[in-house]
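Quick start: what a row looks like.
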Amino acid sequence: MNKYIAEAVGTFALVFIGCGAAVIGGMGTGATAIDLLGISAAFGLAIVAMAYGIGPVSGCHVNPAVSLGVFMAGRMSLSDMIGYWVAQVAGALLGALVLAIILSGKAQGWAGGLGQNGWGEGYLGNYSMVSAFMFEAVATFLFLVCILGVTQKGSPSQFAGLAIGGTLVAIHIVGINVTGVSVNPARSIGPALVGMASNGKAVAQLWLFIAAPLLGAAAASLLFKSGVLAARD
C-alpha cells in the first residue's frame, strides 16, 4: 500500500500548493499577491518537492495521465495503474477539501473558487472548447515526453524532478489563461467536485480535462513504446 499512499500524498500536495497559490495568493493584494509566474512556480515546485519526497516510493506520478503513459510504455502493470488512479483522485479531493476549509475562514472575498479548470466566456482568456482541448492534449503530450524521457534507462535520473517540475512551470506560463492548466485529470476532478456547489460549470466541463490529457499522454507513450524516442545503447 505504500506506493498508493505516496501517490495520494503527492497529489494532495500538488492540489493544495498549486491551487492554493492560485486562489489564496492570486486574490491577495499588495505584498500578498502573486501573478501568473508565481502560480506557475507553485505548481512546478510542488512537483519538484514530491518527486524527491515520494519518488523513491511510487515514482511520483501524482497524475492519472502520467500513470497511463507509464503503463502504455510498458513500465507498470494495469492493476498498479488503476490503484494509482484511485489514490490520485482521492488525494486531489482531499487537497481541494482542505483548501476549501481554509478558504471558508476568510471573512470576505472568497466566492467558492478552488482553482477549477475551464474554458469559454467568463473564464480567464475566454478561449473556445477547441482551443482548450488542443492546449491540454499538446501540453500533456510534451509533459509526458519529458517524464518518459528523463526516467528511461541511461538518463540522469537524479535531475528528473527538476526537469519535470521545470516543464510544468513552462506549461503553466503558456496555458493558465487558456484553461487554468490541468494536464492532470485528478487535479481537475478534486477542485471541480469539492467546489461544485459554487461552480457547477466546472463539473460539466470535466470531460475535457480527463479526455485531452489522457489522449496526449497516450500519444507520447506510443513514441517511446515504438522506440522512436527510446534511448539508444
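That is the whole record. The chain has a mean pLDDT of 92. Residues 23 and 130 are 26 Å apart (CA to CA).
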